[in-house]
Amino acid sequence: MSDLQTALLALGAVIIVAVFIYNKWQEKRYRKSAERSFALKHDDALVDARPGQGEPPVDHDAAVATATGAARIEPQYEEPGPGSSREAESQAERQLWMKVPTSITPIDYCVTLSLQSETDSSKVIETAVKLLSDFNKWVHVDMFDSESSTWRSIEHGDICRIIRGCVQLVDRRGCIDAVQLARFDGAMRGLAVRLDARASEEGISEALIRAKDLDQFSTEVDIKVGLNVISTDRPFSGRQILAATATAGLTLGADGGFHKRDEAARSQYCLTNLGDVAFSEATLVTLSTNAVTFEIDVPRTTPDPELVSNLFGTAAKFAAEVGGQVVDDNHLAIGEKALSSIRAQLDETYKKMQERGFTAGESLALRLFS
Asked: S-S: 324 plus which of 188, 190, 229, 348, CB 3.0-4.6 Å?
């Protein structure tokens, strides 16, 4: 190994250590700032559910398991004495919290806020937008509906008592980093101060463990399977493609593909160009291409035992109409053996997803694989 290589390795190690120390410092700074704010503003029966404050030590193996669901983090209560003026209020608040389902969702880091009094949703929405709009992952704020005992989106005109803010940990771009997560945690604690609320959360370290585990899982099951149609004589024209897709019942989407949709308007498979130009109303006027592909985005597609057969049938009819041939990625003709292999691959992927609490094509899967 040359001196230059040794120096570069040493420099890389120093940078990694520096980033780790900086992330820890940022997390500690956000937490201390929020705790100082609470110490000045609040004295309530609800207290933070934080490690070291009435909670057992963190079990990291259990934290990883929370990617499929986690134990509820219960707020703690200070028992008012007999005859206390707050006894009835505290009793009512305990009963309300007993109805609240877990705030830890499989793909989000959530901070739950207990407001000191009923608050108009307009104030909550306005304040949340100011504090939570600058993140590179999907952020949403929900309210607890005591009548249905469920979480739901906040709407103008609602009256809020318990809310939660959540940031998505993982999507197809990768998992959230420690700095972003600490920023979100700090923003939620800032929201708590402005709304006169108490906060409880899972803990940043545990959330990062879940995020890395979930990112690895999503990489394993994030697959697409497809059948190619290649020209056998001359390139396919845009007009041929438009006519053939209309016959097959495919509709052009904003993503540059023709989609076959089910009765609920969910995409089952998609036809895209294997060339450099995506399909659009403008490009199809002059388009000429030698190959297209019919593709199933597996984790985003609802399981259907006839899906692969329908995909092949549509591809074969399309090929016959435009003068092409259905082949695999190696340009080999597709037979029943190849179709059986695709079915097995889909079944295995769906099984892995179900084991982690995800159903392909449903809302959580659509968010994770977005």
From this structure: 229
